[in-house]
Specification:
The complex is a heterodimer. In chain A, about 25% of the residues lie in helices and about 20% in strands. By secondary structure, chain A is of the alpha+beta class. Chain B contains 3 helices and 31 strands. Chain B has a domain of about 250 residues. The chains are: A alpha+beta, B mainly beta. Chains A and B meet through helix 2 and helix 6 of A and helix 2, strand 4 and strand 11 of B.
Chain lengths: ~350, ~400
Amino acid sequence: MARSIKILVIPILIFTTFISCEKNDTVNPMVRFPEGKGYEWLSDYNIFIGNLADINPNTEAGILPYNLNMALFSDYASKKRFVYVPEGSKINFDTTDVLNFPLGSILIKHFYYLRTDGSEDNIETRLLIRQTDAWRAETYIWNEDQSDAQRTIVGETLELTTFANGGNRTFNYLVPNQNQCKNCHSDEGKLEPVGPQAQNLHKDYPYDFGTANQLQTWMDRGILEDASLQQLTAWPKIDDASTSLNKRARAYLDVNCASCHHRYGSAANSGLYLETENKDSLSVGIWKSPVAAGAGSGGFSYVIHPGMGDQSILLYRMISLELDERMPEIGRDLIHDEGVLLIRDWIDTM
Amino acid sequence: MNRSLTKYISILTLIISVFALNGCSEDAPSNEILIKAGTEAAKDAQTAFIEAEEGNIIIFEAGVFSFTNTLSMDGKNEIIIRGAGRDETILDFSGQTAGGDGVLVTNSNQVRFEDLTVRDAAGDALKARDCNTVSFVNIATIWSGNPSKDNGAYGLYPVLCTEVYIDNCYAYGASDAGIYVGQSDIVIVKNSVAEGNVAGIEIENTTNADVFDNEAFDNTGGILVFDLPGLTKYGNSTRVFDNNVYDNNRVNFAPAGNIVAEVPTGTGIMVLSTKNVEIFSNTISENDFAGVIVANYLIVDDTPGDPNYDPYPSGIYIHDNSHTMTGTVNKPVQTINIQAMINVIENNGFDQPNIVTDGLLMNASDLCIQEGSATFVNVDVPSFSNVSNDVTVHNCSPAGLPEVVFVPF
């Protein structure tokens, strides 16, 4: 009985595969947008075309790649970012916070590591999906044969090895669970994106059609409200020596810490607020005593001890690998050498 | 042939009926989610914590449940997390590789944890942040072995919450506070035991808290009511009464830099900078530095840096406690500042007092003492020039604080 069903099914499968193949050759599919929880497989969204593992954005359907001036450190993972804004919708131009994406938008962040042969080892792909007035976070873990990535709500810990700054480093890579997504992506208890602020997007991107400014491209595509970019100061790159140490350090802390360390974030109870807009020296950490640091104080008295980077709790927690000391609390199992250098310089020269 | 077939069928029937029976016994009410011990338990528990719906009860059966990541819940309403008993259900985090906390619940309303133990978390054991009406009943938070600075900071840790109810809990081994309530409003901590922590029970930057019928012993300090600068709110109105606070002489093992690292070894109850604290009807015995300390944040940090913060304690009313103090203060284990205080007390010919204040008060009447025969010293920080054991300047009797009343979940 069971066998006869199988015999019937196989030709149907072959037939449908054939049809869908033919279809793919002619026109790219529309992006699929989930109504409730996310689809089971990354491929279900039609965000990428062709061989999924190649991460080719479905540009015809409106998937646009982007990157950031100052990026969040994630254990030396490489990242590819994409944005989708449904046709006819526009992002309001705003420089005071992360951009407010319209309903129907999807932000895609893909995490991978380069293998020694130069090929890409896809680890996970995270989606932020703007369904109603709130965002939904979905995470997809790539399978062994890299044919697709499957939805996870509880995440996973993977032991990985990567080569960075002259050495191999083995570490526990955390694919976050749904709550841990929100731990960082939180504003007054609601899920929000973290990276795409206008100052951080204000840069060129090497598109297929040529290199162009990202914000200008978004405006040209009609997904971002028209605005003059003349007055907009881009956030610096971490190693951009032409920008002041202070600006680089504050941008770094904004991107890497302020998602939790702001007045309405997960770490609001610490009284340490690291968004670039905060001009109050105490809550930026200068001469600030720790509150609930525990062992995270490292035996030091101040979050930032001006002139003494190595005696500042802020730097201590960036260097520590202990679970109850390290910052960020999740998503960092390795030390970000470049970030540590920047922040040490910044505090030392205060 | 026939016989063996019959036998086969009867075995099959048996198997089916066992399955059916099994299914039947596990047929929990539809609002219950059962988590069984085993290799999938951590995943099952985290799934339940994410997918639970209003009114659900997540039940951990008896056993040890091992976690490698924080077990977290966010944005839920009306959830009970229930174990089979404090000694029966152990959530064990000794193998943790990710996440700073053991169990974490955030942005939720009406959540109740009961009848289980959280053991050996990397950081804080059980943290509730931004929650309303959150209860912990018969919960233990412990770190195995001798208390150590390498243990997590807080055991039970509600912060930025309202209507916090802690009843019949147990906290051991925290390198900061065993039971810590921070930046919260409307709080009851009762019938609980804290031992082997730096601070047994600590109420910090919190309003409207009642702490009663607890036992705090073998900590560095038994019960602390603190107010610190630069946080989301300031503390006011805490009653500490009917507690048994004894033998809190454990050498302070908090990592330096933390405010509790400044607590003298041998402290019963300590108020730091908080407004309106009523301490009464406690049994305070054999805490070798002092039974009760009233202090100003300026003695630990003379530049708080927060213009809205008032470090001067006021509305402090200490009355009708019983004091016993027969031991000797352990001077060599104290910080330099505390040693200086002890020297000043000694040099003025006083014994270690039941009640001590640094004297950094705006008005003498900001501290009222009606304590019968209890001894008292004002060490007159920072000059130490007018050290006094005259308690009569604090002879006032303000109205008591109101009871904290709410319906816990």
